Amino acid sequence: MLDQPSSDTRRVKSGAHPEKALSAVFVRSVKEPGRYADGHGLYLFVDRTGAKRWVQRLVIQGRRSDLGLGPVSLVTLAEARVLAEANRRLARSGGDPLHEKREAREVLTFAQAVERYLEKKRAEFRSDKHRKQWRATLDSYAGPVIGPKRVADITRQDILRVLEPIWETKTETASRLRGRIEAVLSWATVAGHRQGDNPARWAGNLSELLPKPGKVAVKGNHPALAFSDLPRWWVDLQTREGMAARALQVLTLTAARSGEVRGMTWDEVDLDAKLWTVPAARMKMARDHRVPLTDGAVAILRALPRLEGSHYVFFAPRGGMLSDMTISAVMRRMQESEEKRLAEQDRKAGRKPSTGPRVYLDPRSKRPAVPHGLRSTFRDWVSEHTSYPGEMAEVALAHKISNAVEAAYRRGDQLEKRRGMMEDWGAALNGLMPQ
């Protein structure tokens, strides 16, 4: 507890504003031991050695308590006032600043900080789905790189290691990810788990090291596979082993989003009816989406192993959901191995090797195709190589309704007609054109 007021204690006059009780000059110059009041329970304590520290007296859950706010060498008068006001607000609302301070002393990893942040901010998310999406982005991209690292030790270089691999290929996702990392680290700083500048801050920080998002990618423009490359790519994919490769096959056959496939659970799938129903909670448009399964997709699903204790169809090694990067890595490895094969052909033929990528490229941007771009390949196939209505393709892609005609298709679902379209799509993957 604090010592009782001494004769040299500076008292606050009734009604005085706290900011006028002490001055920064006085805090720096005072040497006489004692307790000096700043108002509203905040005191400057000077001991006999000349050391100075801030102490706050307040009532916490009905009990008077003294809370240390740090030494003057680390906490300025202005900062002490901010901390004291935050503690007073928390105590008035029934919280316990002492408990918060004890929590702040814990060694907190980034993964743990994400958990704490989401719990503290639960009420701010517009829906549980939004909260899960927010979390999934951090788990997929930041978790593998900085998840186990203490938040106090995270640097700008750590943030760059998270962002640089996807900054130019998944710019919108990367930009959103940066903002979410910044929010978590900002909370960690205010909660006392780290100090200093936020390494994920954009202005005057990462903005000097990364190109502006608007300069490297158009929103929603994911590199797509050229239709002419599709059969060769599909043959290549079928030679790949592993759960991620099987997930990529089903993603391609259904023209679904990566998150929808990775989150697929066995209770969503009826193999006998050849139907996959994605619940509204997992859909971008927040409504149930029925997906007809081709014979090829059903065969893949029937052959999959099941992991006891995991309800995911495409499970990660520890039983959780596959990460988006895992599926993207399959396409990247396919690209790399094909490039090596072509380079070896050049070497044997005595040709100068190419310096850039040559296979599985988006025909417009010349960038390597990514899983989400396969949906664009499917849409182009419907428009350019079939007589199926474009509106039906939009329903298959679960896109937002933009006019009354599409709305009519959505109401009727067109499941059986779409089943025929998806079977033809499966044939196209194998180099066959619809009759």
Automatic annotation (TrEMBL):
GO MF annotation, one: DNA binding
Protein family (similarity comment): Belongs to the 'phage' integrase family.
Species this chain originates from: Rubellimicrobium rubrum
Domain annotation Core-binding (CB): ranges: 108-189
Name by which UniProt lists this protein: DUF4102 domain-containing protein
Lineage: Bacteria, Pseudomonadati, Pseudomonadota, Alphaproteobacteria, Rhodobacterales
Region annotation Disordered: where it falls in the sequence: 336-372
Keywords of this entry: DNA integration, DNA recombination, DNA-binding
GO-annotated biological processes: DNA integration; DNA recombination
Compositional bias ranges of the Basic and acidic residues kind: 336-348
